[in-house]
Write the structure tokens for this entry.
Amino acid sequence: MSEVARPTLSDALTERMLELIRTGGHRPGDRLPSTRELSQRFAVTTPTLREALRRLEATGAIELRHGSGIYVGAAIERLVLPNPNMREIRTAQLLELLDARILIEPPLAALAARHAGSEELAALKHALDEASRHLGGEDAELHDANMTFHRATARMAGNSVLHEVVDSLLTVHGPEQREIQQIFDDRRRDHDEHLTILEAIEARDAARAEERMRAHLMDVKTVVEHRMKSPR
Amino acid sequence: MSEVARPTLSDALTERMLELIRTGGHRPGDRLPSTRELSQRFAVTTPTLREALRRLEATGAIELRHGSGIYVGAAIERLVLPNPNMREIRTAQLLELLDARILIEPPLAALAARHAGSEELAALKHALDEASRHLGGEDAELHDANMTFHRATARMAGNSVLHEVVDSLLTVHGPEQREIQQIFDDRRRDHDEHLTILEAIEARDAARAEERMRAHLMDVKTVVEHRMKSPR
DNA sequence: ACATATCAAGTGATCTAATCACTTAATGGC
DNA sequence: GCCATTAAGTGATTAGATCACTTGATATGT
């Protein structure tokens, strides 16, 4: 199993597609040649080409739009990806995931407090405005707004790799996050904790932003642990 | 582009494959039914099935072995993956990646010092023994041993999610790591720094392990920065 | 009895040629 | 100018076949 399998034609096609994207200077969103043209250009049949395309699609390098064409995907420039096949997180994994966030996100909140630009700050506020608008109602929208808040904070830190890591962690346990949101005994409390993080970032108080973020995530972890001990 | 594309048959097949793996209680390495059987069972043609299989293969959920069969892949249980399409890291990204490692790996070294078990410690030592054997010779082997050291340290920390993150970061910039190894002015120095980390972990000195790891990675970053300022 | 070589069966990999389903742009009518 | 229809181009899938590889079984030789 440690042996490298013999390269297939489909492997070679994947490489050639990546090269075509790179040498063509294509950016995410750019349209690529059609499958008919590509299969001709590479002298292969469309089912074989499509195998390569599906592979690239699965990793976000391209998007196939039925009837429209093939487009370069946003994830082509990423280093780290969320596993798209994750359907259910084991309980032990969930706690480890929260611990990972507890290790990574507080220092990022501190960096965000140091780097805060006005546009990014506006995005952060907007996310919390959205969240506050949904406090009394829609679960999905509240959840999205809260995740946007965490993502925006990670982005503000100015390290794209760590932002990708946080994004991946948030993405991969979206369903569990929704469940956590539902068992968190006070949506208001969650929101208030987010607000204290925002205040610290606005005040450029790195230490406080870090401490607030850590307290928030540990609060979440505590709630999850309690839930695990007394499932309802 | 924010619209969810219409689900294809191939999408559905991907889901059904994941379900088959899950409900079958399959573990990584287990053999799955053949493509002929699967295409019959799912009532689709083999090119369509193969699109789904390629998608799963790209994300490590399965392995296709020509002439042998389809096997469950190790990455099926992962949350975070290295982007397999990454061929070249931009310079700015490389520094951010090193910063990400500087944020994540030192606390993991501290955790490793607290959790060190005898088997894991042996693996760590083995990695450094391997590295010392290749100090005067093979680049690839030295590189592999050094990466094994970092991976083993992250694993010892006992958080599988963070281990995946570190593994992803190390995997995705393997080529750059090799280059860094070549420009690092003293292989001995690199090795010695690894040894001080090992000593701290053996001594269960969490603070020192963390400090040694941070110093080591910042040393690496410094070298890279110098290289960027005066390319050779 | 054991080791080696050969063959058969089962496996993944790719092709050919076609049809189906969707999107977008162009054209015509009001 | 707006709306509806049509045509062209696009991705999605099929059916049926052949090719390339692996593994296990069988036969042969020592």
Remarks:
- Chain B touches chain A through 55 residues (CB under 8 Å).
- Residues 6, 34-36, 46-47, 50, 53, 64-70 of chain B lie near DNA strand C (CB under 10 Å from a C1').
- Residues 133 and 142 of chain B are 8 Å apart (CA to CA).
- Chain B has a mean pLDDT of 90.
